[in-house]
Write a structure and sequence with these properties.
28% of the residues lie in helices and 21% in strands. By secondary structure, it is α/β, with parallel strands linked by helices. The chain is built from 13 helices and 26 strands. The protein folds into 2 domains: 292 residues, FAD/NAD(P)-binding domain; 151 residues, FAD/NAD(P)-binding domain (3-Layer(bba) Sandwich), CATH 3.50.50.60. It binds flavin-adenine dinucleotide and NADP nicotinamide-adenine-dinucleotide phosphate (NAP). NADP nicotinamide-adenine-dinucleotide phosphate (NAP) binds next to α5.
Length: 462
């Protein structure tokens, strides 16, 4: 079996390492010219993580203990490169190769045609026995819309890279998330003036409390209500009423939305270096009118309004969408297709690494289980009550519990499936033989021409 892995960021590298551990053959595609995903090309140069070092490192590869609690983007990139070297992943990665299309070939067998284009214009395609999509969920910019036309410069936070972009400008940042607050704070330091517009109140929590990174204060044994109570108590003690900072009171419970962890926004608000505003009512040239009737002349608006999840290369009909969410059972697999997995879409309340390592092991179990099932794994999981997520927010402890449960359940599914799926769940006789490449010899062995004559790029692959 040969899988195609799409993306060599935090998630894709974690999946590749797990595939190596479990002996699953794969080829990995990375559109960028280097590995690391967001930490290579997607974040502003001054960012430091909000999740702490200990809660962000992969489960199988610690960050150096000499590193700070909140490593920089540069350190994150260094770490991901060290991880790739540690697991000897580089030979399996085709850099500067963007997957342009993924389509089912034989739905019954669960095979997939993957097409790609290299930065030099070369194209190729190959049929794989499976696909793992790790294309990230912080790249497709979500832009807000207001009546009127803005006469200044309007960019998304994705396009914000360095404080030089702010110098000498009257800057308005839109949003109450971590990007908005980080950038508003940079504007307070570097811009002519800094403003922030938030359409509601949010829970702003300090990065550390009692000298400990906030995310490390939450413990696995704490039920959600206790975690919320701790967050409320911390906010009360460390911050006080948000109204004192000119902000709205949160209209939701802590953790009902992604928490904003920032110790500097409130500091600069109290120093008058950032002016808080409610939602925007309309644009009028350079003037921005807010819903409270106040107006400001602005040169640069940075919409830190988040991202959409998208799979632009995926053939229509593979994944259904509802209210902006792909209908993936357990956030991992569609109900009607075999051997396609979507990985790393969740937004955990702390760092990504531990969840990636544990989740990638579960993914490998899922791959092995699917081979023993006649029907799509997603159909079996759906029958057992697993549903598509209705939010990307993740309680990391709940996810780790689900992963542990999933690992125990997966090997049992082939025995359970016939009972819960009826005749559909039974495995039929052996399939056509699978060639050493992992591609069915009968119908799918791709010619060198079919894979784009890309012989040199294939040489490094296992
Ligand atoms: C400003 C900012 C700060 C953050 N801070 C934290 C933090 O403190 N802690 C934390 O845990 N997380 C943080 N994150 C979240 C961050 O997205 C994750 O840490 C991590 O980068 C997600 O990894 P990923 O591999 O899922 O996605 P990405 O990092 O986005 O990697 C996806 C990869 O897939 C590649 N790709 C996409 N489409 C294709 C295609 N068609 N063909 C081939 N390759 C493709 C991309 O080039 C990219 O390399 C932050 C994000 C941002 C934007
Ligand atoms: N230092 C760091 O480590 C750091 C820095 C930046 C980002 N990150 C991470 O990167 C990820 C993305 O963060 P993000 O801040 O870019 O996105 P985000 O968490 O999705 O936040 C988007 C913000 O924009 C608001 N918003 C969305 N649409 C809007 C609209 N039409 N009008 C007004 N406001 C709107 C949202 O408010 P509503 O809640 O009302 O929708 C929310 O406050 C997160 O995981 C975050 O933790 C980390």
């Amino acid at each position: 079996m040969t899988f195609a892995l799409i993306g060599a960021g935090f998630s894709g590298l974690g999946v590749a390492a797990a595939f190596r551990r479990h002996g699953i053959d794969y080829e990995q595609f990375e559109a960028a010219d280097a590995i690391g995903g967001n930490w290579h090309h997607g974040v502003y140069e001054t960012v430091h993580i909000i999740s702490s070092r200990k809660t962000t490192e992969y489960g199988d590869f610690p960050m150096p203990s000499s590193w700070p609690d909140f490593p920089s983007a540069r350190q994150m990139l260094e770490y991901l490169n060290a991880y790739a070297d540690h697991h000897d992943l580089r030979g399996g990665i085709r850099l500067s190769t963007k997957v342009t299309r993924v389509e089912p070939v034989d739905v019954e067998a669960g095979t997939w045609k993957v097409s790609w284009e290299r930065a030099n214009g070369e194209r190729g395609e190959r049929i794989y026995d499976g696909v793992v999509v790790c294309n990230g969920h912080h790249w497709s910019s979500r832009m807000p819309k207001y009546p009127g036309a803005f006469g200044g410069e309007l960019i998304h936070s994705k396009s914000y890279k360095s404080p030089e972009q702010l110098a000498g400008k009257r800057v308005l940042v839109i949003g109450g998330g971590n990007s908005a607050c980080d950038i508003a704070v940079e504007a307070a330091r570097f811009a002519q003036s800094a403003h922030i517009s938030m359409r509601r109140g949010y829970w702003f929590l300090p990065k550390t409390f009692l000298g400990v990174p906030l995310v490390e204060l939450m413990q696995p044994w704490m039920p959600p209500f206790a975690q919320r109570a701790v967050a409320r108590a911390m906010a009360r003690v460390a911050v006080g009423p948000y109204e004192r900072y000119g902000l709205q009171h949160p209209d939701h419970r802590p953790f009902d939305r992604h928490p904003t962890i920032n110790s500097e926004l409130l500091y600069y608000l109290r120093h008058g270096e950032i002016a808080p505003h409610p939602d925007i009512e309309r644009w009028d040239g350079r003037a921005v009118r807010f819903v409270d009737g106040h107006e400001e002349e602005i040169d640069l608006v940075i919409a830190a309004t988040g991202f959409d999840v998208r799979f632009p290369f995926l053939a229509d009909g593979v994944v259904a969408w509802k209210d902006g969410y792909p209908q993936l059972i357990g956030g991992l697999v569609p109900p009607d297709h075999k051997n396609i997995y979507f990985f790393g879409l969740g937004q955990p309340r702390y760092g990504a690494g531990p969840l990636i390592t544990a989740g990638a092991d579960l993914l490998c179990e899922a791959v092995a289980t699917q081979r023993r099932l006649e029907v799509p794994l997603g159909a079996v999981l759906a029958r057992l009550g697993s549903r598509p997520p209705r939010t990307w927010l993740q309680d990391p402890f709940a996810v780790l519990r689900q992963v542990r449960l999933g690992k125990r359940l997966m090997p049992r599914l082939p025995a359970i499936a016939p009972l819960i799926m009826g005749a559909r769940g039974r495995r039929r006789g052996p399939r056509a033989p699978v060639a050493a490449t992992g591609v069915d010899a009968s119908s799918r062995a791709p010619s060198r021409r079919a894979i784009g004559g890309d012989a040199s790029a294939r040489e490094g692959f296992r």
